[in-house]
Fold this protein.
Amino acid sequence: MERTNGPRAVPRTTRLAPPEVVADPPLPSSRPVTLVDHDGTRVSDSSFSPPPPETLGALFRAMVIGRRFDLQASTLARQGRLAVYPSSMGQEACQVGGVLALSDHDWLFPTYRDSVAAVTHGIGPVEVLTLLRGNWHCGYDPHAHRCAPQCTPLATNASHAVGLTYAARRKRGEEGSTATTAALVLMGDGATSEGEAHEAYNYAAMWNAPVVFLVQNNHWAISVPVSKQSKAPTLAHKGVGYGMNAYHVDGNDAAAVYSTVAHALREARAGGGPALIEARTYRMEPHTNADPAHRYRDQGEVDYWRSRDPIERLETLLRAEGHLDDEVRARIDTDAELLADTLRQRMADDDELDPADLFANVYATPTPLLQAQRQRVARVGKVRR
Amino acid sequence: MSETLTMAAALNRALGDAMRADPDVVVYGEDVGILGGVFRITDGLTEEFGEERCFDSPLAEAGILGTAIGMAMNGLRPVVEMQFDAFAYPAFQQVVSHLAKLRNRTRGAVSMPVVVRIPYGGGIGGVEHHADASEAYYAHTPGLRVVSPSTPADAYTMLRESIASPDPVIFLEPKRLYWSKGPVNTTDPGAALDRAARRREGTDLTLIAYGATVEIAEEGAALAAEDGYSAEVLDLRSLAPFDDETVTESVRRTGRAIVVHEAQGFVGYGAEVAARVSEQCFHYLEAPVLRVCGLDIPYPPPKLEDLHLPSAERVLDAVRRLQWESAWTATDGEDRAAVSAGVAHTAGSTGGAS
Ligand SMILES: Cc1ncc(C[n+]2csc(CCOP(=O)(O)OP(=O)(O)O)c2C)c(N)n1
């Protein structure tokens, strides 16, 4: 019998069936959905209608307050009042547009970068900064706010949202509520490369979970540009492979982000499945206050994006259309200052920390080991700062 | 009322009873639906409870754990199956970074009533990646309960208790015991989760084991008895939290201790047990705490696994090394035979705590 190492020719005894004809899925456009252009003029987009003026006003106000909060937090980090702060300056349209699209039943799954989103969601600024201050890992009750703890490992919050909405669907009938709980997951462009992102997208699509993944493509994952992260034409294209709705939006256009997320959430709640949204935006500040961004990116690039500021763009539109004047703007600024003042004051002193907290919530009931350690810490422990 | 069941059947019964008792219990994982799991632990659950309660997940372990975390955040009690010990590693990130920590991170606002069932350990002739004993990874993680049953009765009780637990439980099922039989009381199961069990009483030394090695320790104790040593056998049941009280009481009484487990010894679970025993029983000890463990190698191919796994003979060998006479050495070094060659061993003559 003849032996070869190469592939053996297999006699073709059967005819192959003709390939099934599969309809082309709609692909996200390489041109992002834009409703308000960078010069503040309206752009007509056939797929999404622009939000009404009150909504645009609310988006604007939340962005102004968010930026003031962000600036204050950066200052607190410089003063050593925060252990670290990852600024989201420049990303306000995503932070605010995504969150304001949520309904009362929905949940938010933020990352370390999404403090402004959490503040917009209604969580107190001190509580939001508890993690970055180093007092505790999360400063708020997730159930009270329908907001998961800010997530530090990349992409791992995405599957939590899928499970949470799954549970909500199961519980809906039992508890008599008719509203569908949807979830908004915030993630970065770098996070989409993680294996966990893939698993979460796939689970969401398979389970038809009402989850919207909003990828804030701020162009950098610490020092790595998005061009070294993915070969996909847009990050939204990744959604297509999972059978998900996928959209690509201008991430500095709060109206576009809001409309797209609101639409995707509506679709998802109605049983249309999850969505992956890439919002193209820019991180104006370094990765964190401790990151020497000049080592990897050009000032020219930063300047270009500063000229596309999401706040200025909406302000131009609102003023042009008569929904904003100096008086209204001044009122918003006053509110923003008030928040910054309160935050500064409340962060001026170190909080008293109770060492017993270390052991209180490791298990529902402290184990004998932890009880013994708690006593030892009470005896000899000391918090040095 | 007591029936005789295999451990696999006892686990299956526990899942069914828990699902019947609480509509929030959901069971999922790879192939757990119509197939009933590769070890059939979930057999019949989809038929009885429907695909809403017991279902096949996509083939993605991190996703299984991640979605379970989200479900637990919102009122369900997921019991998920990892198909084999070494295939739980993709989910490790979710286990250590989130499952174990969410209660702590949220100061008790979010609890994690999740059970992660892992068929674990070797001895069934499985090829690579089907026989790891990974308990030390989990037991090292604060916030997790890590348990392993050694009898069908405990398998039933401990799984029911684990599902009821407000904290996440890594439930290690010694797969080579799946087919071992024993009495199971499902109507009055008692409690088994936090306390070690004394499987055999003894006065000369304490053998500390869990899961599949409890049987080995018992066989070793029988051999030691022929040699004249009276060995007590403790079955830890719960690896975390650790039952210091039972272990300390026993070792203070016997004065000698040996830990038996099949995972690698180096930085293994036995090292922790030995350290705890040394700290708490120092003045009562007649000899160093010894460990009978797996070899410090990647899990070997099935035809060589018997060399790796603890055996009754290796337990007996350790018993003989417990410094019953001063010239004996406790180390497991190569020159042990040479060192002890000239020393006559008089069985049992110096045995027992002084
Ligand atoms: C699993 C994991 N790997 C690495 C890190 C360290 N890390 C923190 S932020 C970051 C970059 C993330 O980039 P991106 O997802 O684009 O989000 P951005 O910070 O730009 O908002 C890295 C590598 C991490 N947090 N988690």
Notes: Chain A has 14 helices and seven strands.
